[in-house]
Give the backbone structure.
Amino acid sequence: MPLHPPAPLPEEARADLIARGYNRRDLGRIAAVFGLGAVAARAGTPAWAAPGAAASANMLHLDANECWTGPFAAGQEAARAMVARSNRYEPADEHDDFIREVARIEGVPFDWIAPWPGSSDPLCRAVVSFCSPTRGLVTGNPTFELAWRTAEWLGAPLKRVPLTADHRHDVRAMLAADPRAGVYYVCTPNNPTGTVTPLEDLAWLVANKPAGAKVLVDEAYIHWAGLPSAVALLKQHPDVMVLRTFSKMFGMAGMRMGFIMARPEVLAAMMRYDGGMQSGSLPLPSLACARASLSQGADIARRRAEMEAAREVGQRAARAKGLKLVEGSRANMFMIDWGGRTGKAMQDLFRAQGVEIGRSWDIWPGMSRITVGSMAEMEQFATVLGKIV
Ligand SMILES: Cc1ncc(COP(=O)(O)O)c(C=O)c1O
């Protein structure tokens, strides 16, 4: 799903403010309230607001890396119970209860955890907080574009470094590309390849990066992989930040829950513009659902196994047609190389058959990202693939 170039303060909003008697200096302050406070909204259209984000009932959606099904039963039950008590801003201590549960499961102190409505905002905000015209952003390529869109919006130098031949982030090349960057962004498992960058590579980057630079590790897909988290590195080093979302494995994209783990002084630097207005605005049913979901180990393992089996069906169908894949995905997505046709052309062909597949990246225009759906959905994908190719 495409993200769009940022628009600082739309022209009609500027004209409206001036017509209402504000001067040009005021525009900056007002943009800060409506813009910087909601950095994600200004820096790039968030996933849920992008054109085409609304799932149409008669299409099979394999395009947005959502889960094919909703929250775990325990999460749904907790959310339902909370709806009935939502006349109060906070009937008990729900915000802190959520943080305490994350602290227990991840083994980090309470004040290293900040919940957010999704992870798009803290992702953009980390870039805004620690990059500048003199301290740039370094990312892999291809990777999730929101960080680099934010750097472009900021006017911060941006380096996009191709993945290694086995599709890890090339941490040595990333450091060499900008030895004075403000943020090194590593998405692992990576969107769109699903491939993992080992903790040893991340540890090398943390040990060799310039002083003060942040290593921002986006673990949106970590529960699909079931691999160790970069939280271990955060415990050792103050410049590591770890992002999580409930939009993927936990099936809560529409409930908007995520969190970031970082040292308190790092979190404070990220919050200084909004007084908690953005980060604190968490609907209680979402908080309750997320909290109850985190500890559902058996459900997590079952859903992971289900996804792996369905992924295998989709991948096997592509291989059977002689198509090459980006091998090694550990997440609910994989990339297909169409062997000469463009991803855009294939998207149109699939759409005509009722299947919405994912986008391509400019570095690999001949490949498309396919989100793994349920087993039945991947069988349908395989049938349509068989017709088209
Ligand atoms: C790697 C990665 N990070 C962050 C996000 C943001 O998701 P959300 O704002 O729903 O947490 C996404 C969404 O697709 C993603 O793929």
Q: What stands out?
A: The two ends are 23 Å apart (CA to CA). The chain has three domains: 11-49, 73-294, 298-388. The longest strand covers residues 240-245.
